[in-house]
């Protein structure tokens, strides 16, 4: 594995706050994600990771830290081979998606935002 000068080689997970991990797992599984990790830690907590089917970077669904809130702009960008089909499918599931796919023109790929049950915002990007 190639690493940076600091020894870092990959991004393992990005963490988003989840006030109800079971609800979040159900939501992401409905989108086709796979729950690969669900372990107790720190006494009263669970460490949960969901992955896109072919993904190697997890979205960790963790309780918000004391004083923090859910409902954040995550900065997470997901890819799809067919942006319009993905948008329509998510909309049919009742996911809070933007009303339309944004088509800004080259070189910007088509994209739309969606919100999970905790109002965390993620971006879906299609091919250019």
Average pLDDT level: 94
In whole angstroms, the N-to-C terminal distance is 30 Å
Determine the fraction of residues in helical runs and give it as a percent range: 10-25%
Q: What is the count of β-strands?
A: 8
Secondary structure category: alpha/beta
What is the CATH class designation? Alpha Beta
Strand-residue fraction?
A: 25-35%
CATH architectural label: Roll
Number of domains: 1
List the secondary-structure elements in sequence, H or E.
EHEEEEHEEE
- Return Rg in Å: 16 Å
Strand order within the widest sheet?
1-4-3-2
Largest sheet: 4 strands, mixed
Shape: globular
Spans with pLDDT under 50 lasting ≥5 residues? none
Helix count, DSSP H or I runs of 4 or more residues: 2
CATH superfamily: 2,3-Dihydroxybiphenyl 1,2-Dioxygenase, domain 1
**CATH topology grouping:** 2,3-Dihydroxybiphenyl 1,2-Dioxygenase, domain 1
């Amino acid at each position: 594995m190639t690493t940076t000068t600091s020894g870092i080689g990959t991004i393992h997970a990005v963490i988003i706050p989840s006030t109800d991990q079971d609800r979040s797992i159900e939501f992401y599984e409905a989108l086709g994600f796979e729950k690969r990790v669900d372990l107790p830690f720190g006494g009263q907590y669970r460490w949960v990771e969901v992955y896109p089917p072919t993904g190697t970077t997890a979205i960790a669904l963790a309780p918000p830290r004391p004083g923090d809130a859910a409902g954040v702009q995550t900065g997470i960008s997901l890819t799809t081979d067919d942006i319009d089909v993905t948008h329509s499918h998510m909309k049919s599931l009742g996911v809070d998606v933007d009303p339309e796919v944004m088509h800004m023109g080259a070189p910007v790929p088509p994209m739309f935002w969606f919100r999970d049950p905790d109002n965390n915002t993620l971006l879906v990007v299609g091919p250019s």
